[in-house]
Amino acid sequence: MAKKQVQIRRSRHNMDYVLLTVVMFLIVFGLLMIYSTSSYESGDLYLKKQAQSTVIGILGLIFMIKLPYKYLQKFDFLAVVVSAVLLLLVLTPLGMERNHARRWIDLKFISFQPAEVAKIGVIVYLASIIQKLESVGKNIIRTPKGIAIVMVPPTIIAALIYVITKNLSSAIIVMGIAVAMLFVAVPDYKWFVAAGGGVLAVAAAVVMYVANADAATASFRLGRVRAWLDPESYSTDKAFQTLQALYAIGSGGIWGKGLGQSMQKMGFLPEAQNDMIFSIICEELGLFGAMAIILLFIILIWSCMVIANKTVDRFGSLLVVGVMAHYAIQVILNIAVVTNTIPNTGITLPFISYGGTATLFLLAEIGIVLNVSKSCK
């Protein structure tokens, strides 16, 4: 009995400090790169704004570490309802437009993107509902009804994100999180392989259609696909940002030009501190610096996977899986966009790109993971 109490006492302090260290390094590096990228045109304006959001985010991280993560399960259904309501509020006078995109809610004292709230809301809902379904019966989640209970709410949230905010990347991330968590709950490879094959087939059909369609009739989204297929033909408009990012990556070489020595950030690469900041990292720190950052993200994702495997509680394990999927999808999509591997979807690099709302909620998610890590066996 005494031995068991000692083990429980130790488990309460078994937080993953490797993960915490990696996150803190990425935050500091992100602030450094935001200043390096934006100082030529805006001085320290973006640095100050990001630093303020980071401080609030760290407070949120500490709060989530202290709050028992099982308490979140009480708000599973409420999480998706609140997410949907916040997305609908974008259509009201509270909605705010920036850079020709209406994606924010302005509460005067703070503005934020409800899509970021929705990502956490979907993770909490899915972790809870999957655990509840499994507690009733292992095979219930494999039935059409069980899959519908799991997948319909995140699908609705993703649809609202896309229709209301026109934010395709966030909608993809929400659906990616849902699919990843369902895969962990139902590791039936043939169905997921079939579904993945179907998605790839549809994507290939869209690409072929766009490649052969009349450029004048292409919509905004399809226009981005055309620009991805033939960026040189759209070098003055749709593909301008992508080409400038590729120039930055190519000019950096192996070791880079040196921190602060980027040329593309001097008015050539629009909004370099946002989605395309990875290209400035490549230009200033070279392939070596880019690979070092990718390695840190791999360590972050690997740490989440280890925590998910070691967590005794199913709800906690699924929470970590959701966060892990979020980070993995977002990092892969951002780097793929910057390197023109996929069409430009407008997605930030976690902790490094400028974005107060994203940083705040990403740190809250890390707080949840660190909280769960304290209960690892």
What's the domain count? 2
Order of helices and strands: HHHHEEEHHHHHHHHH
**Compute the gyration radius: what is it?**
21 Å
Principal-axis shape equals globular
Strand order of the largest sheet: 1-2-3
Topology:
Layout: H1 2-11, H2 17-42, H3 45-66, H4 76-89, E1 95-98, E2 101-106, E3 111-112, H5 114-136, H6 144-165, H7 168-185, H8 189-212, H9 220-229, H10 240-252, H11 277-310, H12 314-338, H13 356-373
Antiparallel strand pairs: 1-2, 2-3
Describe this structure in words.
It is a single chain. This protein has about 375 residues and is mainly alpha-helical. The protein has a 3-stranded antiparallel sheet with strand order 1-2-3. The chain is built from 13 helices and 3 strands, in the order H-H-H-H-E-E-E-H-H-H-H-H-H-H-H-H. Helix 4 (about 75-90) runs parallel beside helix 6 (about 145-165). The longest helix is centred in the C-terminal third of the chain and has 34 residues, at about 275-310. It folds into 2 domains: about 15-45 and about 220-375, no CATH class; about 65-185, no CATH class. It has helices at about 1-10, 15-40, 45-65, 75-90, 115-135, 145-165, 170-185, 190-210, 220-230, 240-250, 275-310, 315-340, 355-375; strands spanning about 95-100, 100-105, 110.
Keywords:
single chain; mainly alpha; 2 domains; globular; disordered N terminus
Please give a quick description of this structure.
This protein is mainly alpha-helical and 377 residues long. The chain is built from 13 helices and three strands.
